[in-house]
Amino acid sequence: MNSLKKKIHNSNLRKNRVRAKISGTPERPRLSARISNLHVSAQIIDDTTHQTIASVTTVGQKTAKGNLTEKATWVGNEIAKKAKANKVKQVAFDRGDKKYHGRIKALADAARAGGLEF
After folding, report:
1. Rounded to 5°, angle at Cα 111 from 87 and 52
2. Is the CATH code 3.30.420.100 the one for domain 3-113?
């Protein structure tokens, strides 16, 4: 197994480990965070009905400027606003295969400051 395949394999193992413990319900949907090299996106998902309740991304946004940590903070604030509009207060945070550190933490802190509970 070459190094790239090993990284992808380990990433999938971490992601599946987190997803095995976290599932979105109508009372407490899942807040899924995704950070790429250029953009940040977040979705609030009800896994029982397979519906996306709210989503925010920095792709094509003029207001989301700065480095990725600042973009993650912006996404956290916006997803909290959309969650309030859809009457969602509690969520289960799905960090994917990332550590709860840096950009993921900035997104989560901004969402908490916006009124989400997790």
Report:
1. 50
2. yes
Cα–Cα distance, 114 to 39 (Å, whole number): 21
Q: Does the pTM exceed 0.70? A: yes
pLDDT of residue 63 exceeding 90, the answer is no
Residue 103: CB atoms within 10 Å: 20
Ranges of each domain in the chain: 3-113
Here the tokens at position 72 are 């993650």
CA distance 76 to 71: 9
Q: Name residue 90's beta-bridge partners.
A: 117
Per-residue DSSP letter, 15: H
Helix axes 68-85, 103-113, angle to 10 degrees: 30
Residue 16 is which amino acid?
N
